[in-house]
Amino acid sequence: MKTYLGIDLGTSGLRALLVAENGTVIGAAQAAYPVENPHSGWSEQDPADWIAACKTAIAELHQTHPEQMARLAAIGTAGQMHGATLLDDAGDVLRPCILWNDTRSSAEAAKLDALPDFHALSGNIVFPGFTAPKLLWVKNNEPDIFARVATVLLPKDYLSFWLTGARVSDMSDSAGTSWLDVGARDWSAALLEQSGMAQDQMPRLVEGSEVAAPVSTARCAELGLPDGVVVVGGAGDNAAAACGIGALDEGQGFVSLGTSGVLLAGKSGYAPLPASAVHTFCHAVPNRWYQMGVILSATDSLNWLARTLKTRAGELAGLLDGPLNAPGSVTFLPYLSGERTPHNDSAIRGALLGLDHATGDRELVQAVFEGVAFALRENLDALHSTGTELSSIMAIGGGSRSNYWLELIATVLDLPLDLPEDGENGAAMGAARLAICGATGAAPETVMTPPRINRRISPNSDLTKAYAQAYQAYRAVYPAIKAL
């Protein structure tokens, strides 16, 4: 039986998942790498670290599952979106990759966002974290580098380029550049021209479940891969996660508690509403789209508190492992890196309100949990404004290990949360499923089925009203803080 590899190139590390053709997990490996913050609001990575991590993960899988790796047929890549990896004619990297959570290009984003074509064609606000304003920043601040840019690749596409030598991207990831006509699923000459770019600087586009290119002979030899392994188009991390849990169609979705927080819903058609600050992107499979609201600091908010209190995040989360409490007296705004949905505000920063002498670690953890939950509720309201409805959602991501946090989110959203039985349902699984489709020709609907549900967490009906009132109070804080 052939095997398939899904690689998720995350913000803090790479995860590789080896699966059989029937989707059964064979093994996994991962490797970490750093994020550099040379200035306030900057976030960069060296693409060489991604390659080193990929080599480490593949070598580990060779060691633990040599026979299965010898039967590898295809690789799917998923990864953090929006990053600007700049290559010259020779394919060499010109500067560190500017990441999704980098906000230096807020002025350039505002300039592009004011042009009518960007809403009409891309279907989205031009957020500072998107790729187009990053290139305009490079043009304005690093003109010598900008003049040498032959190709702009998204992070997971650079990994595919290293494997194959082909400069290729998929529609789901490219939709987050502000250069794609998301309805037409193709590069927009008008959007590129207005941001100072040309179509020959863009990678070739394929669907995420379509073969992009074979792994080069030299790379197969270097990595110990069998000849004939192919790489598929892959997906941005959230589209890949949707493939991993089978969220392809209208109303199917998930809440992800990772570094950032995401509330995603599958869409059968293209129906953008840029003013809502909801992202409307191509899905990783043909003829489908998805919408999502994004908050920039979900588990990152808990990590910030852990660093501040010099305690591990897991220990802090463990302080709230009992029944759901009534809303706390401390309010936390999770805007540590600015915010996307619904505010589109790169300058706003987090806040803690209501502190007193009795405030301790437990109260601060509850405030962080509630602030993230309320921010996700704002995302749900934004999705509702576009006509998107969700009757239940799956919970994925590292933060989903906290039962307290999940019950709180279910109560604040007033939606049941389903926990998958198998924990291997994230972006790496979605990437592997895309690889299966590309190599075998299987229809996505037959491969990307929902996982079995381990349990359902329902809203706490005794506290739903109290949290609805607390949410309204939370919503009043942003405009007050913004005015300061």
TrEMBL record:
Gene Ontology molecular function terms on file: ATP binding; D-xylulokinase activity
HAMAP family referenced in this protein's UniProt entry, alphabetically: XylB
Name of the protein in question: Xylulose kinase
Transmembrane domains' residue ranges: none
Reaction(s) catalysed (UniProt annotation): D-xylulose + ATP = D-xylulose 5-phosphate + ADP + H(+)
Residues at which substrate binds: M81, H82
Gene (UniProt): xylB
Function: Catalyzes the phosphorylation of D-xylulose to D-xylulose 5-phosphate.
EC numbers, comma separated: 2.7.1.17
PROSITE patterns: FGGY_KINASES_1 (PS00933), FGGY_KINASES_2 (PS00445)
Keywords: ATP-binding, Carbohydrate metabolism, Kinase, Nucleotide-binding, Transferase, Xylose metabolism
Record GO biological process: D-xylose metabolic process; xylulose catabolic process
The protein's enzyme class: transferase
PANTHER family given in the database record: SUGAR KINASE, XYLULOSE KINASE
Family to which this protein belongs: Belongs to the FGGY kinase family.
Catalytic residues in the record: D237 (proton acceptor)
Pfam families: FGGY_C (PF02782), FGGY_N (PF00370)
